[in-house]
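Might you be able to consider the sequence and fold that I enclose below?
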Amino acid sequence: MLVPSDAKTLPRFSIPVLIAVLGVLILGVASSIYVYQKVDESGRSSVLQRTQTFAAGVPALELERLQGTEEDSGTPEYETIKTYLTVMRSVNADARFLYIIGQREEGLFFYADSEPAESPDYSPPGQIYYEATPAMFAVFADGQRHTEGPDQDRWGLWISGYTPITDDAGNVVALLGMDLPANEYLTDLATYSSLPLLVAVALVCILLILEQTRRKERAYVEQKTEFLSIASHEIRTPLTGIRWAVEGLLKRQNPPLDPKSRVILSLVHESCLGLVGRVNNLLDLSGLEGKTQVLRMESISMRSFLEDIVDSLLLSARQRNVTLHIDVSVSEDLVVTGDRQILHHAFFNLLTNGIKYTHEGTRVSISYAAEQGMHAFSVSDAGDGIAQSEQTTIFTGYHRTREAIRSGQYGTGLGLYLVKKATELHNGSVRVQSTPGNGATFTVRIPSST
């Protein structure tokens, strides 16, 4: 069993693929960082908007009358503010803790909070907040809103927002703070920011799978090509021997062959030629599909080049009473730059097909035209033509048209596929124009700057 040469080794990917993988991963990481920043910014903005809304609802007159001491407890002003904070917390289920804090020489202290008096988290008015953070002091220093966290303290993991409360003169007299459990915030942050990276990883996996699949397919194609080449060489050698032996017998004059033996040997000779042609097509196919080296470009005088091909096909043409004609448009000074051997494959197969499928007693001609920077060579026959539905499939390989099958001519369906491969190696193309019953014209286009 044939096994690809890299089947038992770790996959090695090409530099372009590795660069693409690295680029996708970098883009994924950068996108995740960007999304993280945007989600974090949006989350903090939401926290600040809510604290600003709460701060705007604080009864300003009652707050101004508070002393910030234990004597505030039980006063109508304190109870009004306490009730406001309690109600705001009750209608905002995720607001774990609301509080109003002031500042004096000893530090930051509580005016009021949302906790009931019996709660262990309750802070009485005037109590110094020794765990005040730099962000809280910053509110009094710059008069701006601030957020901090997520931070862990003895009560849990929180994200906090602080909004200044100012008097009529614009002086910061207190801040309103809100603590939110940070678990949901962190979950959203992790979920949204990880999505671009997960997409990038998925794309990388798809890219690597596709590349590995492509490499395996290429390995199998190379193995198939190598097998075809070896097998074809092994088959062609004995076939060539049989061909020459039969031709020797057919040419023998003394003693002459009897008519029956000559008929039988002629059939053997014809079958042998057909088999040699098929083997040659397989060899040509393996050579073109496996061709990875640079083309051997040279200047080719097309008139003499085509004449040589025509000369090699004269015997086949005479057997079918077919005339091979090179039009005057293929001038003596017409020169094309290309790989001589590969172009020989293309034109040899086109002319061979023309001889096989044109009607007996007709002509197969080849002409030339210049088309917008392209050399265009057209091979025309007078055969049964090709149906519109088959004019694209004939170049796919191993496909024979219904007309070709009905003609009784042997074939593998590889000839036109070889023409297509040969022209594509020259950055060219091949097309067909045909209507059933009116023959076919195949046009090979090769860039004039090739």
Summary: Residues 1-9 have pLDDT under 50 and may be disordered. Residues 183-251 form the longest helix (69 residues). DSSP finds eleven helices and twelve strands in the chain. The two ends are 41 Å apart (CA to CA).
